[in-house]
Specification:
mainly alpha, elongated
Length: 113
């Protein structure tokens, strides 16, 4: 008779311990369309950053490119947010956020007299 409460207690303990365990970070599978979209948006950010750095870029062009970079950053972070445990996507969001901040700073700098 005493064995039943012990078995129940152990079962509850194991169940609670399993619920509290952290789940490992996941990565979007190679063929997930969100991964492809994020990679495409990253490439657009890269191209825009190179264009922004090209000699002779007008301030209006720099600011337009900054807007494009920040729009892509928003899209990347939205896509990454659709898969909360995806470390790869969140790293891409962080990188795109840094690119957006840098692009905004470049736009502001060119507007300074």
């Amino acid at each position: 008779m005493i064995r039943a409460p012990i078995v129940i207690f152990l079962g509850l303990f194991i169940a609670l311990a399993a619920c509290g365990a952290q789940q490992p970070a996941t990565t979007l599978p190679e063929l997930d369309p969100r991964r492809t979209q994020i990679q495409d948006l990253e490439e657009q950010i890269h191209v825009a950053t190179e264009q922004m750095s090209a000699g002779g870029a007008l301030c209006a062009d720099v600011c337009r490119l900054a807007d494009d970079i920040c729009k892509n950053q928003g899209d990347i972070c939205r896509l990454a947010g659709e898969s909360p445990g995806d470390a790869w996507g969140h790293e891409r969001c962080d990188k795109a956020t840094a690119s957006c901040q840098d692009a905004k700073a470049r736009c502001l700098a060119c507007r300074q007299p």
